[in-house]
Specification:
Length: about 190
């Protein structure tokens, strides 16, 4: 089931010009049966405190599967170490997280030379409030799996995207994608 979910997400990302991930982390996070990673309406202010990480000097210094710290993985209820991939122009990592009906797939994609507003014309985009001073947009539609992406500017010509496929529930996917973007923001370089 997990392999099929990851394959489906990677196919979706490839079609949208988005990319996948790798990992060197070990261990398995567990959750209480019947719980979801982040319930609807949960804000990051109600989550446990973030782990403070120093931002790196450039996007090229970041390994996609190292973007989520162990503390973040616990908060997000990640159930695996992550799998790296290079698809399209991005470098990404995919993880599974305990979903309500079945595992959800989350991805973080690093775009070294793609601005946040350079998304395909076929995507349905919506501007979001800035995330700690970074321009952010939400991308939905275009897939049967109702994946949601929150893309955030890192520099003029680089961005990061948090992508979530949550049991065909676009609203929950968008909420979790926003949470992931907020969590990883402090670890990213500033222009």
């Amino acid at each position: 089931m997990r392999a099929k979910s990851s394959a489906v997400l990677l196919a979706i990302l490839a079609a949208a010009g988005v990319s996948g991930c790798t990992t060197s982390a070990t261990g398995t996070a567990t959750t209480q049966p019947g719980t979801s990673p982040i319930s609807a309406g949960t804000s990051t202010s109600s989550l446990p405190a973030k782990t403070s990480s120093k931002p790196t000097s450039s996007m090229a210094d970041i390994e996609p599967c190292s973007v989520l710290t162990p503390s973040m993985k616990t908060q997000l209820r990640v159930t695996d170490a992550g799998k790296p991939s290079d698809i399209g122009s991005g470098r990404s990592c995919d993880w599974h997280t305990a979903g309500e009906k079945r595992p959800w797939v989350i991805s973080v994609v690093l775009y070294d030379s793609l601005a946040v507003d350079e998304v395909p014309d076929t995507a349905k985009t919506k501007p979001l409030p800035d995330i700690n001073g970074r321009k952010a947009i939400q991308i939905t539609g275009g897939t049967a799996f109702k994946a949601c992406t929150v893309s955030m500017a890192v520099a003029k010509k680089s961005s990061v995207a948090a992508i979530v496929m949550a049991d065909n529930d676009e609203t929950k996917g968008c909420e979790l994608a926003r949470t992931i973007a907020e969590l990883i923001d402090p670890t990213l370089p500033r222009e």
